[in-house]
Design brief:
Elements lengths: L4 H15 L2 E6 L4 E4 L10 H9 L4 E3 L11 E8 L2 E9 L2 H4 L3 H37 L5 H10 L8 E9 L9 H19 L6 E5 L2 E7 L3 H19 L2 E6 L9 H15 L4 E4 L3 H9 L2 H12 L4 H16 L4 H8 L3 H15 L6 H18 L1
Parallel strand pairs: 9-10
Antiparallel strand pairs: 1-2, 1-5, 3-4, 4-5, 6-8, 6-9, 7-8
Helix pairs in contact: 1-4, 6-7, 9-14, 10-14, 11-14, 12-13
Amino acid sequence: MFIAEETARAIVSEMKSVTGRDINLMDDSGTILASTDPERVGQRHAGAEQLLCQGLERLVVRRDDPAAGTRRGVNLPIHMGGRTVGVIGITGEPEQVEPLGSVIKRMTEILLREARRQEQEALLEGARQCFIENWLFSDQVNPGDLELRGRLLGIDTTQPWTVVILEVTAPEQAADTPEDLREMRNARFLKHIQPYLREEEGALCAVVNQRILLMYHSRGRHALLSSVDRLRTELVSAFSAQICGGVSAQGRRGIEVRRCYQEARTACLAARSGGGILFYNQVSLEFLARSIPPAIRKDLFRQVFGGCPQKEQEELLETVRLYFQCDGQVDRMARVLYVHKNTCHYRLQKLKEKTGYSVHNPRESVLLCLCSLFARLEEA
């Protein structure tokens, strides 16, 4: 197996810091890939060649031999996957460095395996990103081929998927920032949230058209919003960035996922002015709320909630938002709040008593919903 030079240099540096000894790392041909003595890099190492040729488990060099390119020390083979992939050499008096040999050998093998795992993960992520772009945008996609390629990458295209798009605006970002720099910046943000995404079974992620794209197996609206809000909060906290996002209306399969992408993109565009995360089926009402002049929005809000103290307003608005978020199903509200459904009925009754408007009256419920959106616009 080929050992990358960058990996070899990192290992040699790490071993030097741990042991204080000069270290050489040779490939499976006996050539020095990395060394604490830069002048030796690229040279043939006679001791490593002998060890590899004879299949030795250890080679101790008792004296320096400049002609053969060897110095006193211990050389040990590096094994991975049942084969010898290189040699690690520790320079020094054999009696002093030989006790370190097995430890250095083991540590090197562990570091090599970890480097290999990271390389494989990076290759897999790259292949998945390429697959996602073809899935969403390619003009020549055969559904059967798409399903097969997806399964090879651990992606089941026959399951329903929901698409989320996050648009990040960092404080240092200028309006004329080149597209390739924005893509690199978003890739950095995406790398930051990937550990959180691994907790979401089957979730996919990519940077597409200078935006962060997330794909989830379809789930309940509240659970999805909770996951996306967590990622958004993490990015805001880590990078002091402004983030808006759009979520497709429902999960779709196969090529139909492209409609989900368009829905999420539309919702994201609508969310720009107000910030936050917006579902596609909220877009029309959000547009309507923003189209109302601020002065009229304030008057309508005062008409409905003006008689309530600030803290009480916040509680009532949360009840309204949760009611519509749960599609008017009190049982779902109760599960989200971890309370008995009678508590939710009490909160809705309190809303009616305090404002004079009821969510059960279609005309009044529209005004309550608009007022909750007005409040969000004010917060933004």
